[in-house]
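During the no-cost extension, the postdoctoral fellow (Dr. R.K.) reprocessed legacy sequence entries with the updated structure-token encoder. One reprocessed record is reproduced below for audit purposes.
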Amino acid sequence: MRNKFLFIGFLLSLSSNSQELNCNLSVNAQQTGNENVQVFKTLEKQLNEFVNNTRWSSKSFVNQERIECSMVINIQNYQSDAFQASIQIQSARPVYNSSYFSPVYNFNDKNFNFNYLEYQNLNFNTTQFESNLVSVISFHVYMILGMDADTFELNGGSSYYKQARDIVNYSQQSGFKGWEPPIGGAQTRSALINNILSPTFKDFHSVLFNYHFKGLDVMANDVKGGKIALVNSLMKFETLNNSRPNSFLLRVFFDAKVDEISDIFSDGPSVNTAKFVSMLTKVAPMHSSKWKNIKF
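Re-encoded structure tokens follow.
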């Protein structure tokens, strides 16, 4: 379904063997006070090559289909080969018949400690732990792929999520934080993948699909119809929130979407948003100041 965005005749003339991602990965070491140390530049270069040159699936992507994303690694401290860091991941997908890219995945992973020796090989293994550096990056790659695929086809991301779960399972033995089974309201990788694969959150996947494919992608030709579809899709979160209030997965969704939703419904043709705003305030109260901007 991604081909909806491409000129078919042009596609036929292109090779279909490109990697899946167009990722801008940066390493920020300002907090260490030694940001110009060569190892950080080497790490950044190696990780860019690793993410953008690895084939993460058997699916062929042409250059125009590569997923736009970014990863920012913030190094807080390091000693010898041991690094303490966090990583911010974002991805976006194109909206049909427009130049706009809609944010899809936005995750701040605060538990990202790893070991790295300059120029060490970075190799991803689908079945066993290689290093925490590789596992964390690979986990988020599959989350990017899964959530992007979900926006183009209902449950299209299932195979990617299962690979992310496999990474969690074999990385739990490493002892690094972020992989351990979730306890209470822990916002870990393990909690995220458990949520997204749980039958309890099956409606999350239909929201992702309907919001993007039947809502945003319609708006170039029918703004009002697209906005109505957005409202109808997001209203499903009310039922989901009633059964799982303040869920981690919904917080991840709205971290990516809050500005987009606020902007769409603060201008343009009007639709009935009274119940919609009430639902948003209930489901995502941390963004209540943004929901106050919705007037249409």
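Residues 132 and 159 are 22 Å apart (CA to CA). Residues 4-16 have pLDDT under 50 and may be disordered. The remaining legacy entries will be reprocessed before the final report is submitted.
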